[in-house]
Amino acid sequence: MQLTRAADYAIRVMVHLAGLKAGVRASRAELAEAAGCPEQFLAKVMQTLTRAQLVSSHRGNTGGFELPEAQRRASLLDVIEAVEGPIHLNVCIDSAYGCERKSWCPAHRVWVEAQVAMTGVLRNARLEDLARQADRKVWN
């Protein structure tokens, strides 16, 4: 599995916004530069994040994008799923699919364990924590 460019840019933007002081807005151009993303492509990403209520969008001279206080604790999983929808390593673990093989398939348990592990890591990675690491230039 590989994240789409949109999800990658969304994470970069959200970490950048989480590193700003509460109430500070960033322009689309500033966010595009911070994410290393074409501004037109970022516009679509920001639209998606705004619809998901992960960011607030403001128009006008003092407009821009702002991370609501409550969203500073959002996880990478929240951001990824806002952009890409629910993550499933394999279609067979998607409850909407209803795989008839899961009761006897030896790989099904492995897919479920991998799904739980991956989503657990992403759920525990909080924007505010990543922003603090970026601010301190702590890369592990």
Description:
- The structure is a single chain.
- Helices cover 51% and strands 4% of the residues.
- It is mostly helical.
- The protein has one domain: Winged helix-like DNA-binding domain superfamily/Winged helix DNA-binding domain (Arc Repressor Mutant, subunit A, Orthogonal Bundle).
- The protein has a two-stranded antiparallel ribbon with strand order 1-2.
- Helix 1 (5-18) packs across helix 2 and helix 2 packs across helix 3 (39-51).
- The chain is elongated and about 60 Å long.
- It starts with a helix and ends with a helix.
- The mean pLDDT is 90.
Strand order of the largest sheet: 1-2
**What's the helix count?**
6
The biggest beta sheet is recorded as: 2 strands, antiparallel
> What is the class in the CATH system?
Mainly Alpha
- Give the name of the CATH architecture: Orthogonal Bundle
Radius of gyration: 17 Å
Low-confidence stretches at least 5 residues in length (pLDDT < 50)?
none
| Category from helices, strands and their pairing | mainly alpha
Question: What's the number of structural domains?
Answer: 1
Helix-residue proportion: 40-55%
Shape: elongated
Mean pLDDT: 90
Q: Say what the CATH topology is.
A: Arc Repressor Mutant, subunit A
- Give, in order, the helices and strands: HHHEEHHH
CATH superfamily: Winged helix-like DNA-binding domain superfamily/Winged helix DNA-binding domain
Number of DSSP strand runs:
2
Q: What is the beta-strand fraction? A: under 5%
Q: Between the first and last Cα atoms, what is the distance in angstroms?
A: 22 Å
